[in-house]
Design brief:
This protein is mostly beta strands. The protein has no helices and 9 strands. The radius of gyration is 14 Å and the shape is globular.
Length: 121
């Protein structure tokens, strides 16, 4: 299980930046979010250790090699660790214990420009 790349679907950037309220693409291997353990799912942990767990309905594409996530619109700017936890091995077998892969991501723009997040009304 591993993550190869990410892409912010709003900006097309593949540098780990994500736009709240927009889709975020994750490519890798054995990433399909499935299993009965409570730990299974996708979470974002900020630099202070605060965890935001994504609801399952925010995963719009859930395949072994790719995920497309809707990033919560209210996510604060800052550095995060995106963690994918699953019990997936293949279509016929589920791991007894979950395993995880993670990647560093960032919300916001380091340039100091105005906030360009979409306005949801």
């Amino acid at each position: 299980m591993y993550i190869i790349e990410t892409e912010d679907r709003q900006t097309g950037l593949r540098d780990g930046r994500m736009t709240p309220g927009r889709n975020f693409f994750v490519r890798g291997a054995n990433l399909k979010v499935t299993g009965s353990d409570e730990a299974v799912g996708i979470s974002l942990t900020d630099s202070k250790g605060v965890v935001t767990k994504l609801e399952l309905d925010l995963i719009s594409i859930n395949k072994p090699s790719e995920l497309t996530l809707l990033i919560p619109a209210g996510l604060a700017d800052g550095d995060y660790t995106l963690i994918v936890t699953t019990q997936y091995v293949n279509n016929h077998v589920e791991l007894k214990a979950p395993r995880s892969a993670s990647v560093a991501v960032h919300v916001g723009d380091n340039s100091g420009d105005d906030d360009d997040r979409p306005v949801i009304e």
